[in-house]
Amino acid sequence: xxxxxxxxxxxxxxxxxxxxxxxxxxxxxxxxxxxxxxxxxxxxxxxxxxxxxxxxxxxxxxxxxxxxxxxxxxxxxxxxxxxxxxxxxxxxxxxxxxxxxxxxxxxxxxxxxxxxxxxxxxxxxxxxxxxxxxxxxxxxxxxxxxxxxxxxxxxxxxxxxxxxxxxxxxxxxxxxxxxxxxxxxxxxxxxxxxxxxxxxxxxxxx
Amino acid sequence: xxxxxxxxxxxxxxxxxxxxxxxxxxxxxxxxxxxxxxxxxxxxxxxxxxxxxxxxxxxxxxxxxxxxxxxxxxxxxxxxxxxxxxxxxxxxxxxxxxxxxxxxxxxxxxxxxxxxxxxxxxxxxxxxxxxxxxxxxxxxxxxxxxxxxxxxxxxxxxxxxxxxxxxxxxxxxxxxxxxxxxxxxxxxxxxxxxxxxxxxxxxxxx
Lengths: 206, 206
Prior knowledge:
The structure is a homodimer of 206-residue chains.
Chain A: E1 2-5, H1 10-22, E2 27-30, H2 41-46, E3 54-56, E4 62-64, H3 66-76, H4 87-113, H5 116-122, H6 130-150, H7 164-179, H8 189-199
Parallel strand pairs in A: 1-2
Antiparallel strand pairs in A: 1-3, 3-4
């Protein structure tokens, strides 16, 4: 198996952490995103959406979308379970993962595309919206507060154990803190306790 | 099992179609969304995101997010299979479903919240952005064209058979056509052939 990867991007990191948790052997190939390699005809044949990461299976099939890749890997390598082992767990882990994507990742993404790093990378090729960033900055911090309240009663994002939802949340918080200027406030102790717990896992370095 | 439902909303329709395909018995309870019932403390205890639909299981657990509810139902009632039966199918159906959500539903959603129906419902409580709508209208039509090209080579959204990805696409196209003024152009024959195929299923009436 081969993963088309970009080390600095947060979505491929979700897959790398998942692979590290599973202990799977995967070949990594860096894609030259700055050079537009993900929009070339060869890449679009693998993933018509022109997005990274993409997994190439041993049979030469291609799977795009981070969570879809993880779902494939979970089916091939069921242990340790990261998507849920019972019907209710499968439903609730998917629910928490989606809430994190739809209510946290979207806000961080809006702040990112309308923020200073993208301004520099895109340099005029892209019209930014400072008002949108103001709203998404605020929403991100409100969501951190919600997470802090919820984590008072559970150790991990989807319950009592580490799952895909924790990978989604950790990559979001780390990307937001390091590259978008959206670090959670210091007084959100339950959120920070969780962050310390998940960051201590060897997979977090992936 | 009980589904907290809003008949006119497109996301609960995804779940209702899924339930109809599976032939499962579920009790439906309408939520008074206009009256704000989904933001009351009782509802937020079931789903802290305050969104519809929510499934209440026979054990009193709650699952929010349409696809998470469907995932739970698939685990309880595996046939007919709608999420994939092999690792590659599981990955590819999730990939196509996510592409439809991230690249089609988000655009239709942007046109919806910035369009005339919401203007009337929200009546000044919400600042609309006509420029965003212009872009998302255009992106929706571009994505319809992409789907039309891809459906030349496959009968259904994720391959040779009806899956969750078709439910996601059908509810998107119907909602966009009927309520957002974004009907696919008549000349997109492969897209319309697909639409006829999925609309002919009894579940489409759900």
